[in-house]
Amino acid sequence: MERGSKKDMSKYVMVGIKKHIKEYVMITIGYVIVALAVKFFLEPNKIAGGGVMGIAIIINHLIPSISVGTLMLIMNIVLFIVGFAAIGGRFGAKTIYASLGLSGLISLLDKYISPEAALTHDLLLATLFGTFLSGIGMAIVFNENASTGGTDILAKIINKFVHLDIGKSLLIVDFVIALAAGFTFSPEIGMYGLLSVVLNGITIDNVIEGMNIAKAVVIMSSKNDLINKYIIEELDRSCTIFEGKGAYSGKKIDVLYTILGRKEFIKLKNYIKEIDKKAFISVSEAHEVLGEGFKDILED
């Protein structure tokens, strides 16, 4: 192998390592946020808004000697075993890490912090803040193609044997857990649990969408060569050049099309202002971008 090829391979390996490190750092941040939401808002107020943590909160009320974190750890392990047997091992290392990391952290918090610790005992505030925080944490984890709870596995099992969509299956599982909380604690807490299920889904969807929004930019300028060079060399992005024709002038013109992150677009806009104040720029939001330089189309 030539020296250049070895150097390229080494660079490719380093990029891959950095990418995986970043993914696991983000997953860790995500499940830490979820753990804090559970410990200081949801668990002490008995708000079981679905998921393994909802089941754990209900069982912990019936068997107080076993902490919520320990119950989550046990259930996640059992669900992974059932999942391997029923649907195969299509979970991925990141999902196993996130699920066991979350339950392990909550178990650690339960050991050193009182189970009754809460930042508020107002059920509405606890539901809103707990669900909002856990939704943000889950969205961060989901955005890295991982998952935080074993009820996803139950949903996949239902999907396999009943042929119901995974999204609907998961919603059914979470609603059943919230209803169980209503029978276990009180109808009021059960209704807050149902509210938590709905708000959690909305929060996750909106946070993920916000994290992945990019700018789709169309540029027409007499300095397209300089702009193209700036996008490639300074922003480390690429662009597509279309040949256009002005409807009024009849003149041919090159049209640049590129997709950039927010910060990259600001840099590009400022650069274009400097070199061509008569440039025409059209900007729209791309809510999800897959491919080179952005999120991989296929992830493990």
In short:
It is a multi-pass membrane protein. This protein has 300 residues and is an alpha+beta fold. The protein has helices at residues 3-42, 51-62, 68-87, 93-112, 123-143, 151-162, 166-184, 187-212, 224-233, 262-275; strands at residues 214-220, 240-245, 252-260, 280-286.
Describe the structure.
It is built from ten helices and four strands. The protein is α+β, with helices and mostly antiparallel strands and 300 residues long. The protein folds into two domains: 210 residues, no CATH class; 74 residues, 2-Layer Sandwich (Alpha-Beta Plaits). The chain has a four-stranded antiparallel β-sheet with strand order 2-3-1-4. A hairpin with a 6-residue loop joins strand 2 and strand 3.
Percentage of residues in strands: 5-15%
Number of distinct beta strands: 4
- Gyration radius, to the nearest Å? 24 Å
Dominant shape: elongated
Question: Which parts are unreliable, with pLDDT below 50 for 5 consecutive residues or more?
Answer: none
In DSSP terms, counting alpha (H) and pi (I) runs of 4 or more, how many helices?
A: 10
Return the average pLDDT rounded to an integer. 83
Number of structurally distinct domains: 2
Which percent range fits the helix content? 55-70%
Topology order in helix (H) and strand (E) letters: HHHHHHHHEHEEHE
Task: Name the structural class.
Answer: alpha+beta
Q: Let me know the largest β-sheet.
A: 4 strands, antiparallel
Please report the distance between the alpha carbons of the first and last residues: 29 Å
Strand order of the largest sheet: 2-3-1-4
